[in-house]
Amino acid sequence: MTGWIVILAGATPVYAHSEGAYTIHELSPGVAPKVSLEVQKDPTGGFNVRVLTSNFVWRPEMASKQHVEGEGHAHVYLDGQKIMRIYNDWFHLNTFQFAKKAGEQLLSVELVGNDHAPYSIQGTPLGAEQLVSVRQDEIQPASPGNTGIPYLIISLFLLGLACLLFWRAQRKTIQSRQDRR
To answer: Which of 77, 62, 53 is nearest to 113 (CA)?
Structure first.
């Protein structure tokens, strides 16, 4: 039984960049699209990116529909995390929104079919990548997280302690009045 599971599991590859797609679109090097990136720093922050392709047709209206060879869109990754889909050759990489750290980061663009399954050559996803240098002042602001929760807990503790002390003081006052009678 274990042998059959291993055989069947091995026959259906699953790729991390495929949004759970169980297929890939394997292409021969001669007919595969060519992909490269032009990345320019945007003066207001982030990067303007152009995805240069040949032998590929951008088909945004067909996203999530049936695969047609040579058509599709692209998935964009920053430091291995998928951040968006793109449907044409230009996009803005908003580092304020997507970058979580400063410094050199790998920007990757992967061509996929209409069905989100990656195009590949000999099992390697078809795309392009380039290192981008993200400045500290252009990253996602540090989330304050739950810093308010400790203050809330301390405040509730102090409020409870004040109520307890007030209750004890009232009780002593009542007890001393009863003792005087």
So the answer is: 62
Q: Does pTM top 0.90 for this prediction?
A: no
Q: In the 8-state DSSP scheme, what is residue 80?
A: T
Task: Provide the greatest CA pair distance for the chain.
Answer: 107
Over the stretch 42-58, which tens digit does the pLDDT of each residue have?
A: 999 999 999 999 999 99
Q: How far apart are CA 123 and CA 26, in angstroms?
A: 7
| Residues 7-44: tens digit of each pLDDT | 333 333 333 344 555 689 999 999 999 999 999 999 99
50 burial level (CB within 10 Å; 0-12, 13-18, 19+): middle
* Final residue of a structural domain among 104, 123, 138: 138
Q: Are residues 78 and 127 in the same domain?
A: yes
